[in-house]
Target: EamA domain-containing protein
Amino acid sequence: MRRGFLFLISATLLWSGNYVAGRVLARQMDPLELNAIRWTISAVLLWGILRAGGKTLRWRSHWAVYFLLGLLGMVLFSSLTYLGLARLPAVQAGLISGLNPVMIVLLSLWLLKETPDRSTWAGVLLAVLGVVILVETKRANWSAHLITGDVLLVLAAWAWAFYTVVGKRVAGDPLELTTGAAVMSVIPNWLLSWVGSSPSGGHLSAVGWGALIYVSTGPSVVAYWLWNLGVRRVGASRSAPTMNLLPLWTVVLGVGLLHEQLALNQIIGGVIVLAGAWLSGRPRPSAMGLAH
Model:
């Protein structure tokens, strides 16, 4: 049991590192190009792992599911996250990611017809209040505020929620679904990069190359493997609350490695968001966890 929780905690640590590495890379390369490269490498690695396990992708019957999951998780969620990190410190982005479980609960209530209880609604309201406190609101020009990293990260949370809820409704092996989604995301990601990328004019430093290798392997492959090992040992319902560690790890890494600072509104808002996520997500297990 203890080893299972260690696997789960390690997975959330690796996922939180994606925000820190993404912040480093946002200063050295275009976010859309980064996302295309990341998921191309990850797709190859996941395909190799799938084949090594004697499994294969069911293209004929599942191509549409793979495409939808890839579009939601590996294209929209990841692209919006990296675009947000180009405008926002990793600490702020990680705290906003605490909204992800709340979005999943709201979509589950709507699409899966799940019945909410009082603690669920209390958690949702708390999380919304926390985000209002967390997000900067002192800008005089509201039209400029619409394209800030805060808004992009909130949109990313919605994309992740759709990805997760769709995954809940699809029966199948998680590794197969994730691999299929990653493979199907490669072409859309490169098309998006070709259309939307702006020339960075720079080159990757040694730290940048390390960060690129990390985001393509740690959060996408290793964390996924650790998470599933932990779920098998601990159970889905006991595993779900550990996802709330992700924002906390991001704060620790952002402050420790990037020397970012926490403002008072970030501390207060982050605590409220996490409390809301814990209340709303407590009775509901998480189904998928890869595209961080």
